[in-house]
Amino acid sequence: MKYKNFKPLIHNFTHSFVGGCNYVDGKFIYEDLFELAQQKSGEKVIIQWIPRIEASNPELTKRVKESISFYQQWLPKLANSLGVSLDHLVEYQTEIYLTKTRQINIRAFGQDDRGKKYEYFVWI
To answer: Among 14, 18, 41, 98, which one is least packed by beta carbons within 10 Å?
Structure first.
């Protein structure tokens, strides 16, 4: 088990989820997430990957929920390819929110079972 590989897992997974390759039904997923973040005016749109909370975002579109489901299935495969076990990751979430200057921020946050925190801002 390589704890040091939680860093690339969290960063790369989040980047992939909000990036230009996540395209469902003719639209990028980040477009829906950014629209929702703008509607929430500073409140965070949170996607809780670990522990998984099914009803955490009822305001998410069907397309985003579909994408989350696909990425939930891919997360263990990516972790395995990096030599890490998700059993040692106690928390992992992606946050999308609007700043006071009206910029969109994407923050990936995780914590392992040793208490080490991983926090990354993703720019697309």
So the answer is: 41
Q: How many residues does the chain have?
A: 124
pTM of the predicted structure, to 2 decimals: 0.89
Q: For the chain, what is the domain count?
A: 1
Alpha-carbon distance 87 to 64, whole Å?
25
The 10s digit of each residue's pLDDT in 41-60 is 879 999 999 998 765 677 89
Q: Is the distance from CB of 97 to CB of 104 less than 8 angstroms?
A: yes
What are residue 117's phi and psi, to 5 degrees?
A: -105, 145
Q: Which two tokens stand for residue 73?
A: 């299935």
**Partners of residue 97 on adjacent β-strands:** 105
